[in-house]
Specification:
With about 425 residues, this protein is of the alpha/beta class. The chain contains 16 helices and 15 strands. The two termini are about 20 Å apart. The structure holds beta-D-fucopyranose.
């Protein structure tokens, strides 16, 4: 039996736009109505119908799995639909939801910004506008006043690196730009925004634990001896993994964000390290791919065999998660895995992903990483951004026609692990091998 520490937090993660439905004031809601933005023309209009009350049964389901934590979002676009205008009704509903988690014995981890913003923010340039820091700080302060008595753990921004990349370099979400300078500008504003939100929550509640969810991706050179591949993997690591993290951890803007300029207000603005981890990928030098700074991702057959989510991206190399956690151990902060998951293409593969990645977490714990909790992405199948309803990450299957939920194999196995607070030999035997 691989046992986890006492009081380890076991949860699942969700985000407002992906589960609530009727989130009409967000920039995403407006954008997704344009033609061909979302696979199969899916829409987040209903999603998992939480805003109509379906959250109750889903929280009940989470409780039945034995979970003692849950990550949810509160939607800025609902709470502040117009600048300076606070929606008391929405706030009351969120209070009920957060209290509903507590009543069911689950520790709420609450995200303040998970990719979506009010339309009035988008109209003013979103994160390209330096004022985004003060807008979100005011929102965070207000949220801390409204909900702070119910919340110990706050997540300011979700995956600022993914957001900046998808919207400003890859050009596939929202602003849809392919502009490296815009991406770097946005990254700097995200850092300032996070710092301002951190201080805002702490001003209201000094004991709150505040962090952000950082997406870690492991970049390996496609050929370990090819120096240009190595250079590109290193560059991606610097820009995607390290730039924002270093600024928040050390208060320094390193290249390409700056020439070691200090940003004292950002330094140390995370009480815990939030880790979103999905996969490792190979990077190759590619002279033709100027848009992505002369690099491209390469996936091998091993990867295709597993048909990981989206187009065969990623792979089953759980040691990469262990290595990320061990790298983070040196910062001597509690670590929460705020997202980790895999879609169902083959249900055994999904279960194998869960078991092998938790084994990696266990190894990291034994080697000194202070991991205190784990959140599977996601509690139930939901609206997966521009991929619509196709990728199914949930512990529960969602039938989007009827809103029926069915527990999947991965959910059954997760329940077993959570209840035992560890992975027993039988599960290791069955699903513990890569
Ligand atoms: C993460 C996002 C989350 C979900 C998963 C699959 O990057 O934070 O909302 O889309 O990927």
């Amino acid at each position: 039996m691989l046992s986890f520490p006492r009081n380890f937090l076991w949860g699942a993660a969700t985000a407002a736009q992906q589960v609530e439905g009727q989130n009409f004031n967000s920039d995403w809601a407006a954008w997704e109505q344009l033609p061909h933005k979302i696979k199969n023309n899916d829409s987040s209009r209903v999603a998992c119908d939480w805003w109509n009350g379906a959250w109750r049964d889903d929280f009940e389901r989470a409780q039945h799995l034995g979970l003692n934590a849950q990550r949810i979002g509160v939607e800025w676009a609902r709470l502040e639909p117009r600048q300076g205008e606070w929606n008391a009704q929405a706030a009351a509903q969120y209070r009920e939801m957060i209290a509903g988690l507590r009543a069911r014995g689950m520790e709420p981890f609450v995200t303040l910004h998970h990719f979506t913003s009010p339309q009035w923010v988008a109209e003013r340039g979103g994160f390209e506008n330096a004022d985004s820091a003060s807008w979100l700080a005011r929102f965070a302060e207000r949220a801390a006043h409204e909900f702070g008595d119910l919340i110990n753990f706050w997540i300011t921004l979700n995956e600022p690196n993914v957001y900046a990349y998808q919207c400003y370099l890859n050009g596939v979400w929202l602003a849809q730009k392919k502009d490296l300078r815009a991406m770097l500008r946005v990254m700097k504003n995200e850092i300032r925004t996070h710092a301002a939100m951190y201080h805002a929550v702490k001003r209201v509640n000094a004991h709150a634990q505040v962090g952000y969810a950082h997406h870690w991706r492991v970049f390996e050179p496609r050929k370990s001896k090819a120096s240009l591949d190595r250079l590109m993997a290193g560059l991606r690591n610097r820009v995607f993994n390290m730039a924002i993290f270093t600024a928040i951890q050390e208060g320094v803007l390193e290249l390409p964000l700056g020439f070691n300029q200090t940003l004292p207000e950002a330094r140390g603005t995370q009480d815990f390290l939030g880790v979103n981890y999905y996969y490792q990928e190979y990077t190759a030098f590619d002279l033709k791919n100027a848009a992505e700074v002369f690099a491209r991702s390469v996936y091998d057959d091993d990867v295709k065999r597993l048909q990981n989510f989206f187009e065969g991206v990623g792979n089953l190399r759980p040691h990469a998660l262990r290595d990320v956690l061990l790298r983070l151990a040196k910062y001597k902060k509690p670590i929460y895995i705020t997202e980790n998951g895999f879609v169902t293409t083959d249900r055994d593969d999904q279960t194998r992903y869960l078991v092998t990645h938790l084994t990696a977490v266990h190894q990291a714990l034994q080697q000194g990483a202070d991991v205190r909790g784990y959140f599977w992405w996601s509690l139930l199948d939901n609206f997966e951004w521009s991929e619509g309803y196709t990728p199914r990450f949930g512990l529960y299957h969602t039938d989007f026609e009827t809103q029926a939920r069915t527990l999947k194999q991965v959910g059954e196995v997760y329940e077993k692990i959570v209840r035992a607070n560890g992975i027993d030999d039988e599960l290791m035997e069955k699903y513990g091998r890569t």
